[in-house]
Amino acid sequence: MKQYLKTIFALTMSATMLFAAVGCSSQEPTSDPASDEQQEATSGEVLTMATNAEFPPYEFYEAGDVVGIDVEIAGAIAETMGKTLKVEDMAFDSIIPALSAGKADIGAAGMTVTEDRKASVDFTDTYVKASQVIIIKADNTEIVGPDDVEGKTIGVQLGTTGDIYASDVTDNVERYNKGFEAVQALAQGKIDAVIIDDQVAKALAADNADVKVLDTPFTEEEYAIAVKKDNTELVEQINAALAELKESGKLQEIVDKYISAE
Ligand code: ARG
Prior knowledge:
It is built from ten helices and eleven strands.
């Protein structure tokens, strides 16, 4: 019996590792290796959060755990609902399909509210204002603002609003699974610029002396939590919890913990 379990464990581990190694490079929504677990998790007193933990300071890995602003906000929401939070990390473009399939209850991933997405999911009230910004090489003097990236080779994270905006201004969009990979490619001179969310740009650029973030934002946007289409009850519950967190100052406290005021 023990041996049998070990084998299962070994198989699961190698499948997971294979998944991690192969990555999710297709445009197709990727299937999730942990979907069975998710199915279980959505029943009962667990609130399952689908996210993509490649997005500091909103969600990222620290000592093997997914942490960050969204994780703490979702944790606080779960608490007010009397539930425990379970975090499922997946490709960003798998989050909406996971919600639609009922494999996760909420999508909390620094997700910008867009009209297009509203056709597939419902959004709660917004909880953070954000913007898309441009990262360039530190020694680049040619690109000084949004107008200068037209026609350039722009790196983005696949399926994000940065992807959409970059596609509006150039035919040369390089799509990466992780924002971090886009910044690496930029530092190596493979692309001219990266378009990504402001706080994430700051976090990624802080670790890389070869790049810098431009001041002028490309677009203004707002983040909200996504739920399965027509799950009005859950939206209302989350909105009530969010209102409480805003009112009590807890939300700001969480944000301040990860983002230092300038
Ligand atoms: N705000 C952008 C969007 O909604 C990027 C979000 C990426 N989030 C992530 N956890 N990787 O498209």
